[in-house]
Amino acid sequence: MKPETLCLHAGYEPGNGGARALPIYQSTTFKFDSTKHVGALFDLTAGDAFYTRLGNPTTDAVEKKIAALEGGVGALCTSSGQAASMLSILNIAQAGDHIVTASAIYGGTVNLFGVTMKKLGIDVTFVDDDAPLEELQKAIQPNTKAVFGETIANPALHVLDIEKFAELAHGNGLPLIVDNTFATPILCRPFDFGADIIVHSTTKYMDGHAVQMGGVIVDSGKFDWGASGKFPGLTEPDESYHGLRYTESFGAAAYITKARVQLMRDMGTCQTPTGAFLLDLGLQTLPLRIRQHSSNAQAVAQYLEQQKDIEFINYPGLASDKYHALAEKYLPEGTAGVISFSIKGGRERAAKFIDSLKLVSLEVHVADIHSCILHPATSTHRQLSDQQLVDCGITPGLVRLSVGLENVDDILEDLQQAFDAINE
User: Fold this and answer.
1) How far apart are CA 378 and CA 21, in angstroms?
2) What is the pTM of this model?
3) How far is the C-alpha of 407 from the C-alpha of 423, rounded, in Å?
4) Residue 392 pLDDT exceeds 80
5) d(CA 263, CA 46)
6) Residue 52: strand, helix, or coil
7) What is the secondary structure of 172-229 as a DSSP string?
8) Which is nearest to 70 in space by CA: 172, 166, 186, 169?
9) For 69, 183, 307, 384, which has the most beta carbons within 10 A of its beta carbon?
10) How confident is the model at residue 8 (pLDDT cuts 50, 70, 90)?
11) Three-state DSSP class for 142?
């Protein structure tokens, strides 16, 4: 089925007389007829839901839908995008290990990897995603366990050369993990270009309505954990499951199964049944929304490109953008709705511009149906050093504009009156 159909039908099929809408199984637990069956559940030899932290019929349907959209063998919904990124690494790395990541990623992920992961004993090397392969290779260490990047970086809007990073990872027996939040599987499917694991903040475009926090990890099922020889957590016995070997027992789904039954079991960063239901509602209209976001943003970016108050603009859909060629390769249907641009005059004029907007709202959010704006250096990325801000492509005058689904003429009119205000 095509993506539009998958968004409506994948993951849940009502039986005769069944509810057309995905039911909400608002229960933490489930009843069984025998201790033998419950024992099989805990031995992972039976597949029924038995506790909502590990699985719930509503969440299970949404996980299947997202896995189908990305072309993976399985998915695991989490309580937030940050939880998804964290579990994606902890599933294969531990104290004494190392990861390599593109430096142009979301500021919260920079902090997660560069501060919190280091406290857990996992080191990180941030690399210039534009560097040639031979330069990137220098970052790989004997204890490296993964390579990470974002399809469209937040907020610098770099487009990741997925095939180059996949070559780097696979040439060293490592998986490539890609954050596909901004692109969504409608605009890009990283598995088609060599990625092995995908993460999303479903809080963004997948939900689309700013009503529910969430994240998801998707497993391609293509990475050979055994052949790599670097991942004993997947290939050697897990004593917490009576010596079970994930690659032996679950094959292509070894990674996502371990993430669920070991990490979700122990850390509990699960999605709720109602949260999964709301996410499913968002997914049903995702193709329509993300294409309209892209169309509106393209028109806004072309307008901004002509403004004398703009120092520079980042939007890969523009022919003048540094990443336009990569966008044409990886994102031929559009580059989503987020634009970043720097206003001449720095923080003071950028703040005045934002405060002058009437339709576009100031929000600590992005990828919403409503147009919203933010000043990253003093909000989402304020924990970063000046050098880290530069590495992420952030200047004092940089603003991040998330173009919504309002009539594009109304958005342009609001932007124009704000530009008029800073020149009064």
Assistant:
1) 42
2) 0.96
3) 25
4) no
5) 19
6) coil
7) TT--EEEE-TTTHHHH--GGGGT-SEEEEETTTTTT-SS----EEEEE-S---HHHH-
8) 186
9) 183
10) very high
11) coil
